[in-house]
Amino acid sequence: MTGNDNTQQENHRKSFKEDFISRVKNNTKGRWIRFGIVSVIFFLWVAWLGNWWVALWWLLLFDIYITGYIPFTWWKKSKNKMVRSVMSWVDAIVYALILVYFVFTFIGQNYQIPSSSLEKSLLVGDYLWVNKMVYGPRVPMTPVHFPLAQNTLPIINTKSYIENPQWKYHRLPGLRSVERGDIVVFNVPAGDTVALKMQNPDYYTLVRMFGRETVHGNPAQFGEIIYRPVDRRENYVKRAVGLPGETISITDGVIYIDGEAIEKPVDAQFNYYYQSTSSPLTDEQFDTWGISEDDRHRINVTPADLPGIEALGFRVNEDGSVPAIYLSPLTDKMVADMTASGSVGKIMKQPAPEGDFLFPEGIADTWTRADYGELWIPKKGATIPLNYDNWLTYERCIRNYEGHHDAYFKDGKAYIDGKPADTYTFAMDYYFMMGDNRDNSLDSRYWGFVPEDHIVGKPELVLVSFDKDKGGLDKIRWNRIFTSANPSK
User: Fold this and answer.
1) Which residue in 115, 111, 149 sits closest to 127, CA to CA?
2) 204: Cα separation from own chain's centroid
3) 267-295 residue pLDDT tens
4) Continuous segment of H or E residues that includes residue 104
5) Which of 201-205, 389-393, 481-485 holds the top average pLDDT?
6) Which of the 8 DSSP states describes residue 307?
7) What is the 8-class DSSP label of residue 439?
8) In this structure, are residues 174 and 136 in contact, taking their beta carbons and an 8 Å threshold?
9) Which of 163, 233, 255, 456 has minimal CB crowding within 10 Å?
10) What digits encode the pLDDT tens for the residues 415-470?
11) What torsion do the CA atoms of 68, 69, 70, 74 make, to the nearest 10 degrees?
């Protein structure tokens, strides 16, 4: 290397040093204060994350606020007015999306109730604020995603996320763990594999109903079969009724935990048949009792049904006609109000059907949604023997949720990661979730346990609520705005 080369490099280093010092000195006191506040918040966030490698991003903040080597605001110096105008909007939108990303990931987000599985506790059309800090926010496992869409971008109908990179599950410290009676938002475990044209019932129920070859071989009927990462699966909202390490059973609709009956939520509903005393019931009567239009099911009675109708205690007129019979989900209070009204005669609970596709397959074949279990809920650190019944019950936890994909049961022996195993120790806590609309809820009775890494957060408030059966200002349920999202707890 020549002397001239050394002199040029020395001058270059000197000029960079002088430039750096100049950029640092030329910042106002106010900008240093803003940078200091942002830095404190950033390092508190890094400490909360517990990953100090993330602290390296502070160098980017230093450049944004102090040195300005990366020309993020190059467009402000453009002579083209259109470029400045467009880029100002782009700049504002990008900052807004970054802010939304962090708020939705670490603090909370809104969530809409799409189905009636929790009525009357939560209603279809409720928009909730879901607090993610109660149980501790979950660090994104799929970090590259559009923050305003769960898994599919509207209109263009494509994935709203990029599957790689995938980060290992990690939950930041929260205020407490899930308690019995909590209403919880979570990613549905059965949403890992999805038939895009038929997502209800879930893929696994479709396979049990039609067979795997039929589901995979008929894209026109079932659509493309895809896999979704944990945090990009559909969000469900249910009530936690069973906690890790507990044994759950259901007898005649009553939930038992470790052999003790637990208190039923005030707004829990079951399906009832009921008969009008004379003329068919009116919309005003249904509205008074709180029965939505979708739940006003009138039963079609044929002459062949008459003996069975009479045997159940329903009235048949002398001319062979039958006063209207209905089927609706009702709370205890609704049953009492309808009985007291004098407009309804016979009321009876609908018997639970046999042959439902309940969890776990091969164990629950003789169970019903009203008479279910016993079933032990896995707990982190607990060890179970790997006999055949336990394998049928906990295979999905072992293979799908805890990542032992090379696990199977063959010739009376379990294999984990290809090696023989007599026992298995769980790496996560699990929960048993059910809807309050007990006879109209696809919940843990159908697709099993909810792993802790699927937990999203706890609904705190009903922000606003819209009744799809009403119009105009009546469409807004004014009495639900900013009310508790879990009034029974």
Assistant:
1) 111
2) 18
3) 999 999 999 998 899 999 999 999 999 99
4) helix 81-106
5) 389-393
6) H
7) G
8) yes
9) 163
10) 999 999 999 999 999 999 999 999 999 999 999 999 999 999 999 999 999 988 88
11) 70
Q: What is the pLDDT of residue 50?
A: 77
> In this structure, how many other beta carbons lie within 10 angstroms of the beta carbon of residue 323?
19
Measured in whole angstroms, how far is the alpha carbon of residue 284 from the centre of its chain?
35
**Cβ atoms 131, 108 nearer than 8 A:** yes
Q: Which ranges of 136-247 does DSSP label H, i.e. alpha helix? A: 203-210, 212-217, 219-222
Class of residue 250 by CB neighbours under 10 A (exposed 0-12, middle 13-18, buried 19+): buried
Closest by CA to 240, choosing from 383, 452, 463, is 452
- 215 close to 100: Cβ distance less than 8 angstroms: no
CB neighbours (10 Å) of residue 454?
27
Contact 118, 237 (CB under 8 A): yes
Residue 367 has pLDDT above 80, yes or no: yes
Say if residue 475 is preceded by a cis peptide, omega within 30 of 0: no
Single-letter amino acid code for the residue at 347: I
Asked if the model's pLDDT at residue 5 lies above 80, the reply is no
Residue 97 pLDDT class (50, 70, 90 cuts) = confident
Taking only Cα atoms into account, the Rg of the chain, rounded to an integer number of angstroms, comes to: 29
Question: What whole-number distance in Å separates Cα of residue 399 and Cα of residue 405?
Answer: 5
- How do residues 209-246 score in pLDDT, each as one tens digit? 999 999 999 999 999 999 999 999 999 999 999 999 99
Q: CA-to-CA distance for 489 and 240, rounded, in angstroms? A: 12
